[in-house]
């Protein structure tokens, strides 16, 4: 498979990867036809998707069965009037139908808009009208259905509603009852060009309404490096990425790159994350490769690993937030596996990563993926030297890098703000060491300026995480009349320490930070909470903490 899309298919060093990663770009590339259907022809009996849920249901689909189901779904959606360029929002949680629908829409040239099941009426109205959504395919659950129904009077472009069950209210098509009646699928003569929009995500920033990130059909190819090289997958792999399908990380770890490698995508459909249940599933199904945000690892390392046979597990990655070195060290102690960190955004594929031929540095994102021209720049636009903090940017030449987004849909001003003068600005701050490894500092808005010092939240969080009482923490800045800003720590304590929350523990944590990192970085304010505010993807919402502090 890989030789169809890469001039060289394996690499042994950073230099080899940088020099010899070259894509073969097919005209009118379509992931569903050119990857999935080819696997169905060449490896029809190979398991493509192994889906389980927290109720004990298990469904295994081969590449041949995936082709049959996606053809059937594409025909069904055609019968409902869905075709090339139509916007279709998917609110499907981790249901099996999400994978089928994503590929079916790809075959039709329609635009998939994955969304979280936690959207409110207001959220849905905004998305429907901003993107001119034509159809919504959703789980048939009470909350989701109620929000969609309430949004319909203010959503004039939506004319197709489909429920995948169990509930199917009036006005919704019944996926399960109707899909079997679809005629034999006939592939459209021209489903797409490489420049067409294939996928769109609404992504929230620190202010304003969510942005619409539009990706073309080559975006799927951009994730080849994510799955084949960063996740280190092959046809023998059984890979699990922990991500809700409403978040961009789902296509990073549960779809494109994994199937370029011919791996089996393992899915555990669960309502509420529980570290022990996740470990049990990994042991039961012999998961070989695992990827999750640092939050998941923080909770997993507090479990008794002797209860789980993880003998099949060979490779683990993390992304979504910077990884605390203390978590890295504990996971390696428990499993013998070194966590391989990566970095990217909804607007990109993996832009920085720790590859199999690299020695990981705990807490480092790794090195640039050579499909992007990565740099660090200071506020005045000049390049950073090693050790200097700056914004991560992508230099864009005459040809847009494979994997970089097309635009913020219907927002030229916002697109120009982030992408101008041949540079895409990520808004993320990092520094580079003398070996070329990049180290995350935070969002530009997250950096704290206190008494003339610039303090990155991650370095303080990492220091706190080395104290045995701390499960999770978030560092933010609080306005101060004397220092401008002071450092605040919002801390989740382990069960054993919760009864000790108070002034003595505050002092102990402050002194701990002073000994682990530079004393000026210590948190002058510490607040103990039961949980941190997070996005559906598991990222800590520091902006929510800051907003809450303003109201106090």
Structural class determined from secondary elements: alpha/beta
Shape: globular
How many individual β-strands?
27
What's the N-to-C terminus distance? 57 Å
Number of helices: 18
Topology:
Layout: H1 14-20, H2 31-42, E1 47-53, E2 58-62, H3 63-79, E3 87-91, H4 97-108, E4 111-114, H5 121-131, E5 135-140, H6 142-151, E6 160-166, E7 173-174, H7 175-178, E8 197-203, E9 211-216, H8 218-222, H9 224-230, E10 238-241, H10 249-253, H11 256-260, E11 264-269, H12 275-284, E12 289-292, H13 294-300, E13 315-318, H14 325-335, E14 339-344, E15 350-353, E16 364-368, E17 373-377, E18 390-395, E19 407-408, H15 412-418, E20 419-420, E21 423-432, E22 438-443, E23 448-450, E24 453-455, H16 457-465, E25 470-480, E26 484-493, H17 503-516, E27 525-529, H18 542-551
Parallel strand pairs: 1-11, 3-4, 3-5, 5-6, 6-7, 10-11, 10-12, 12-13, 13-14, 26-27
Antiparallel strand pairs: 1-2, 8-9, 9-19, 14-15, 15-16, 16-22, 17-18, 18-21, 20-21, 21-22, 23-24, 25-26
Short recap of the structure:
With 552 residues, the protein is of the alpha/beta class.
Characterization of this structure:
Helices cover 30% and strands 26% of the residues. Helix 3 (63-79) crosses helix 4 and helix 5 (121-131) crosses helix 6 (142-151). The strands form five sheets. Strands 1, 2, 10, 11, 12, 13, 14, 15, 16, 17, 18, 20, 21 and 22 form a 14-stranded mixed beta sheet that branches. It is an alpha/beta fold and 552 residues long. The longest helix is centred in the first third of the chain and has 17 residues, at 63-79. Helix 6 links the parallel strand 5 and strand 6 (160-166). It is globular. The termini are far apart.
